[in-house]
Design brief:
7-stranded mixed beta sheet, alpha/beta, elongated, 5-stranded parallel beta sheet
Amino acid sequence: METWDVIIIGAGSAGLSAAIYTVRSGLRTLVLDEKIAGGTITNAPTVVNYPGFLEINGAELAQKMTEHARNFGAAIHEIEAVTALALQGDIKTVTTPTTTYNTKALIISTGSHYKELGVEGEQTFRGRGVSYCGVCDGPFFRDKHVLVVGGGNSACITALYLSGLTAQVSVIHRRETFRAEQSLVEDLTAKDNIKIFWNTEIQEIKGDKKVHAVTLKNNKTKQTSEIAADAVFVQIGETPNSQLAKTNGVEVDDHGYIKIDIHQQTNLPGVFAAGDITNHPIKQVGTAVGQGITAALEAYAHIKQPYHKKHPIETATQLSNTKNPSKP
């Protein structure tokens, strides 16, 4: 049974950032991920709002983060899923199909997975025209007509990306306004080969060996219609990957996101969470990085500085008053 100072579950932006800081703090760090390191950012065709890069491919940014963590000394085990946890007591255990690990602190950064439409034909044609990743599958539909479902940032980014590959992009949105950033909306509406269907929902995805049509319903007029399409890209949000944590005593909110305080601490001592898995309201790569850093430094404090961990606010106040005794 291997013992580590810190184990991080999830090698996305939050987990990799945490690994960089735990290793720099002198902690033996293991990162586990059921997939390839990088997380969901690898699916982003372009990232334009991460400080330091005017524009960078999501997969490239993820690769840089992974290399950074590895070069600093973090052990990253890809394709090694966590199957069981034991989180009570000072030493936590993490079990995978190959072995069981012990750790003094655990950081959960398992992110989320794509929500599904739940309509007829979605599962039947998954991988045969139904996709949840524009970067992964967009190139298969060059010069075709594709649909993008959703109205947030991810839907707009995916539609813009696909508009450069395909002949026509139809955006299906159940409301009459987008909730995406204004700059994305402006770019989207300026594209000649993007058509927007407002107040519209997909009722059924049709095809034979692959997708060839979609049934739509206007939720205001109640009218239905059928349009030809070669692919449907579903971009309607994400669901947190928190089930394993929840069943092992980690508290989650009504939507399944792990509850944290300002120190990324969960309800269990020595168990922290960071990134899209948490109930932090903003789901961006920048906030995931910041949460990962905070979780790493708090994990270090949990292991190395127990007094500071117990009294972080009081200690900071005392130090401030010592340096400025005249300050009230």
